Fold this protein.
Amino acid sequence: MDYKQLGLTKQELVEMYRMMRLIRVFEENAIAYFKQGIVIGNMHMYIGEEAVATGVCKALTKEDYIASNHRCDGHLIAKGADINAMMAELMGKENGICGGRAGKMHQSAPEVGLLSANGIVGASQTLGTGHALYCSLFAPGRVSVAFFGDGGSNQGAFHESMNMAAVWKLPVIFVCENNHYAISTNVNTATAMGSFYQRAAAYGVPGVRVNGNNAIEVYAAAKQAVERARRGEGPSFIECDTYRLRGHHEGDEQTYRTREEIDEVIKNNDCINNMKKLLVAEFGWSEEEDAAMIKSIEDQVAAAVQFGIEGEPMKVEDMESNLYAE
Amino acid sequence: MKKIMYREAIASALAEEMRRDEKVFVMGEDVAITGGVFKATKGLLDEFGPARVRNTPLSEWAIAGVATGAAMCGARPVAEIMHVDFIGCCFDIILNQMSKMCYKTNGKVNVPIVLRTQGGRGRSNGCTQSQSLEALFTQVPGLKVVMPSTPYDAKGLLKTAIRDNNPVVFIEHKGLYQTKGEVPEQEYTIPLGKADIKRYGKDVTIISYSKSVLVALDAAKELEAKGIDVEVLDLRSLVPLDWDAITESVTKTGRVIICHEAAERGGYGAEIAAQIADKLFDELDAPVVRVCGANIPVPNATLPEIESAPTVKKLVDAAMRICKGGARNG
């Protein structure tokens, strides 16, 4: 389906384009400040995969849940989390989204339905299914999305979650971000099929594979799956064929792939370029408009960086708090 | 007061809490039609229906993980892992998800879940269905760990665990389900972190929990005939630990035996012994001793199964050994 069939307006497309750029600029800044030692921790970037979070979250409301993984910046930002608090969290600051104790992989923004990112690959599958069980029992009409990668798809939790969600008809959308590499392991050496959407049929779940670097394609699949879930018809599986443009983590030497392979994606299938081309072709999007948008995003992220830098580091005296809830 | 079985006390606590709060529901393997392999969820399906008494596929990872995911949204699941030995199939959820959620989110997301399970030997179930694994849970910050020994405690503690806003691992004992005890008709709860003196005495304290408390009470009767007056302190919950009760009892008796069915090496008894050595050293008249499970897998055959756990004889021998200097104030 193209954008017209989906009823997407120019304004909506521009917003999706801006969202992808915002995620990328946020992360580019995170990398820059990581290199200076101001941002700390293990940096798993989402750069290259922005269309997935953008397309999926556009099909959701703030009240819907998403369960995220270690590559969580895109999910958080697309769902509407506060980027100031996110950047401060990456710096270990008290004004961070979790007071500095979570770090990049464990951020939480319940105010927008993202209860927890996760350092355990595959955990989002069971937790996201659990969010859907809550919706099914106590908040009918709301849905849940579990984001995970090609790596996470080979955890046993994949099978148990898909099966339980299907047999209970839970309103969950399993979104596999197939970025082709689990750290250094190419997807073709980790699963004989080379892809995952076929597995869905074995659980009685509709499964599709889309170009994960095309936000409109992702949105179209997500919209259909979300509508099905809201109707109480059960889970869906969407495999988004995407590509991680950075290493597994910042500092990854990436000896497992060639520069040419990466450049090929940047040249021919980068999600931001894909959307820009559409805006130019359909709406005469100008370089001036583009530059103005980029400037406003850079200002927004610079303010987030400033917010983080000005925050106080998390205090040792506070490190034992919130182990238990009241 | 009416006497009911331990398993009936569990079912009764679940039913009362499910009536009180619609967010409470049960999920696990075979919990619905049969009421569980130990009958501890018997009757719930008829009253509450299949949406709140959820029979699951054989998927411990999903049972624990899906229940945790629902609890993060505000549900209050009681998820059952049929045997504590199956915890290996879902330990990530316990180790990295439910236990850390409140801390890592700085209190923004909590996990009000009860993970009901059972362990212990006594039915010749062999080495993968007879274990006592509580030390795996006490080692994980963010969990609470409860191990009741009587029907009265089981009911009152389970109700409190369900109302707790944190993950509680509630470990029953397969050898206790048929035991009977007095349970009031009227509603009651028991706070977590409150030990109970099951027998008052002045010469030696046996600190225990779960089924080993019954062994300790039998040993106390034999020791009484030998002139040794035993106090049996039932911890009831390991985390939180009632340190005040331990302090009071040990200060009175000056002699301590710690008794649990779990393997002695690295067991929770070692933690209690270390704390007593650290904080109550001056109160001691004898070394702290442990009477615990052998450091071997649980054997299947009857006598080795019995002898690899605490017995009355082992407790009597230990008490005689540390009391040979005579009663403290006698």
